[in-house]
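Pipeline run #58 for the internal structure catalog. This entry was flagged by the ingest filter as a single-chain record with no existing model, so it goes straight to prediction. Upstream metadata was stripped on purpose; only the residue string is passed forward. Reviewer on rotation: M.T. Logging verbosity set to normal.
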Amino acid sequence: MVSTDLSAVESDWQEKTDRFLLKGDYVQAAKLYEQAIEDEPSVKSHYWQLGLMLLLQGQEVEAQTTWLLALADGESEEIEQWSQELIQVLETEADRQRDLREYGVAWAIRQHIREINPTDINNLLHSIGLSTMLETYTGEELGDIGVIEQLKSEAGNSVDFELLMQVLKNVLDRAPFYPSSFDLTEASTAHVKDPLIFLNLLIPFVYKLSYSARQVELAARFTELALRVSPQNPEILGTLSSFYQDFSQHSKGIETAKLCYSFMEALADKVYANFLVMRGLMGAGGYWDEFCLALETQKSLLASLIEEQPTSLNQGTTIRLFICVFFFPYFQDLPQENIQIRRQLAQLAQLNVENYAKEKVEKYRQRRSPLLKIDPPSKRLKIGYLSHCLRSHSVGWLARWIFEYRDPSRFEVNAYLLGSEMSRDKLEDWYISKVDKAYKLGLNSHEAAEKIYEDEIDILVDLDSVTLSNSCEIMTIKPAPVQVTWLGWDASSVPTIDYYIADPYVLPESAQEYYTEKIWRLPQTYIAVDGFEVGVPTLRRDSLDIGSDAVIYLSAQRGYKYHPNTARLQMQVMKAVPNSYFLIKGMADQESLKKFFLEIAESEGVGADRLRFLGLAGTEKEHRANLGIADVVLDTYPYNGATTTMETLWMGVPIVTRVGEQFAARNSYTMMVNAGISEGIAWSDEEYVEWGIRLGKDAALRQQISWKLRQSRQTAPLWNSKQFTREMEKAYEQMWQIYIDQSNH
């Protein structure tokens, strides 16, 4: 009877302490534990709980004194056991406080656990995790409290894997650039129990590092850690290959792409892996023969894939299909063939997108009915610009003026900036300041599409085309009723895109026969700028060992654009113009690019001493200033310069271009016409060489062209971006009216 009464009393006492604890009344709880110690001084748990109640009141010294008092009279084995009991009490409360979102309290309790057991790796990880949630984490803590050291020691063998992954994610989210974050990731690789969990955490992070923060080299280092955990993973190899290529580790990029291809099994994945091989070869420049073989492989793979017509591809595989024809225009000026393959691939991607994103596609198709009037008093047309490139990038430099001169009384403009959540770009900030609403987004296509849909955008303008496959997926889902491609590349052939912006020159009259999009030709030019900022030149003739009376030819393009046929024509120009030099600049592997040009020069009888290979300029402004060293710029074909051509014209430098049939082969042509010059426009290989020779030999003609270009700054359509903006806005209104009319029939 007595024991039953005691049990009831004890239960009632425990309920009271628990109630006080849950209410946060630590003073009353402490009083109960003080009474319990007085009644049962030998029960150690009372001391642990009393100390905890004091700690929760902020009385840290009193709490520690209470615990030390209880530990003082024990033998070493007893002290160890009691310490573990105390740690258990503190851990339970730390977890409870964390669940209550009292992160500061939980963190403080964890510090006391660390004093008792400084090498408990899981407690150390909890402390780091809590400091990230408190946003007090600085990046120094991992070293200060020994987390990395413990993970590398035998103590790390007891680590809680799920906890480690959660803390790693928090650290990478909050301190991606600290050296200690890389060290933590590296140390974690030895404790990965489930590679998929680790990779699902790390891969999105490396894409953010690369595409948003523009830290490609760091992204590659993290991806190499992923490869440790899954050494033959083709997805990781593909990602790593792209990164190597992006920071000019060309040989490693090509080698890794080939390894990726060897491990890919599905046909659609092989298509992508072979694209990476092509990308590596073209980016390096000079691997022409090998690239041609890879291109033939690509054509064969694509033919098989199009014949197979798979409709259950996953999102990642589908998205990548859009870019797998990217290099065809660099190889051949055959727009009908190139666009047919592009169209077939885009249609296949569309089928798969409509399967895995069925709900979104149907939801967007059932959008509200359009207003019957184009411009009622309360209605401004909502224009959305979608891009990864509204920053320090060619597209970013060229698109500025349509934002600068837009008519806010008629148009509401939103910017959807893909892959920009971690970016710190001044030009991007300028764009954000110029629009009604801007979103710094990641690479999640569905998130971007949903925002566009929620904002009720009327006309969505994609500035990237197939240069970013995520943009293609967004356009395929069709979150806006009218969709347009402009500026960033040729048309993507995505079936849900309505219009492609062009002009009278950049596409031949017959182009509509093979384009799926309706070609919307602006009256004069598809692009205009007010000009370019120019810095101080850093190139001098004397530093290049070139005399003042010599003729300097220049080509400044990416390695992608250097084609052997055009290089031969350029060497024929050089051979015919005495005392001439050719400056070659490009983002490419310098050794392979030199080999490429020197072999062609030798075959055409041009001495190697007449070629100069230039490194990249430090800034865009410096690059433009350095264009002034050239007497004549020799354009590339079948893929012309675009931004570089406009910069050349702005600097008043004569240019020779070879006009073709495809968009990429007519960019310089439309820009020259719209800058007011026809000199240098060649319609055949022979004419290209003739113009190159004539401009090299005729200094008076060069001066005349340069004068015309300087004068044209005041009058030419290419430099009248205010008028261009009015033409674009007029086009938007006409597109919308067509949509209204079609919807009402």
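catalog note: Residues 386 and 416 are 5 Å apart (CA to CA).
catalog note: The two ends are 91 Å apart (CA to CA).
status: ready for reviewer M.T.
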